[in-house]
Design brief:
The protein has 226 residues and is α/β, with parallel strands linked by helices. It contains 8 helices and 7 strands; from the N terminus they run H-E-H-E-E-E-H-E-H-H-H-E-H-H-E.
């Protein structure tokens, strides 16, 4: 497999348990708070916070700031409108999970996450190839509205980009490098069933990691050698 889509280990952050799963914003926030607790310290920025579920999941001990255009953010801000309204290095860590794919200015906002963080950026991107057959079925394609269909009503939000695991990982690694940062941890949410994972590996061979993972997770660290 291409080098960029290998798992990258870090002494402070455990690998994702096989069968990792969350099915709501709240569950995802609890997952973030639990899995990345070793680096969620100091001042934490939650970009795309919506109802600030991450704040409740982290609990006390950090200074939390949530940013979003919708929901109940601490700072109501349109991520497409310009630079994040914070000084360079204002936060120990910035968190941005399943948000960037909804933005036209995905490259700019990723760079902004690194600008306002002193130490780490925790980011996740969905693998749009995962389960893609569901969106191209004749009775689902135009109704989902998640990607590029034409639903009867205008969706409030949708994905602006359609990419696979390799492309997501390449984007994170390359944008990190452009900003003088590096990916220090990376892992993938794979199908929960061990049998399903085995069958997918058998059927897909070298293409397995471009189809099977549902989400690419990464931690980017400011500074340090490439």
């Amino acid at each position: 497999m291409p080098d960029l889509i290998r798992a990258i280990r870090h002494p402070q952050i455990p690998p994702l348990p096989r069968g990792s799963h969350y099915d709501s914003r709240t569950a995802r926030s609890r997952f973030v708070a639990s899995h990345f607790r070793s680096i969620l310290t100091g001042r934490v920025l939650d970009v795309g916070c919506f109802e600030r579920d991450l704040q409740a999941a982290i609990g006390e001990g950090v200074e939390y700031v949530g940013v979003d255009l919708h929901g109940r953010p601490d700072v109501r801000f349109d991520l497409e409108s310009g630079p994040l309204p914070f000084e360079d290095g204002s936060f120990e860590v910035a968190v941005c999970t399943d948000v960037l794919e909804h933005l036209e200015k995905i490259h700019f906002v990723f760079d902004e996450l690194l600008r306002v963080s002193r130490r780490h950026v925790i980011v996740s991107l969905p693998n749009c190839w995962h389960g893609n057959w569901r969106w191209v079925l004749p009775w689902r394609a135009s109704r989902s509205g998640k990607y590029y269909g034409i639903p009867p009503d205008i969706p409030r939000d949708r994905h602006r980009w359609f990419f696979n695991t390799c492309e997501a990982a390449e984007f994170i690694h390359q944008r990190a490098g452009i900003n003088g940062a590096r990916v220090v941890w990376q892992d993938f949410i794979l199908p929960q069933s061990r049998l399903n994972r085995a069958l997918l590996r058998l059927a897909m061979g070298r293409s397995f990691l471009n189809w099977a993972p549902a989400v690419v997770w990464a931690v980017v660290e400011r500074g340090g050698p490439a």
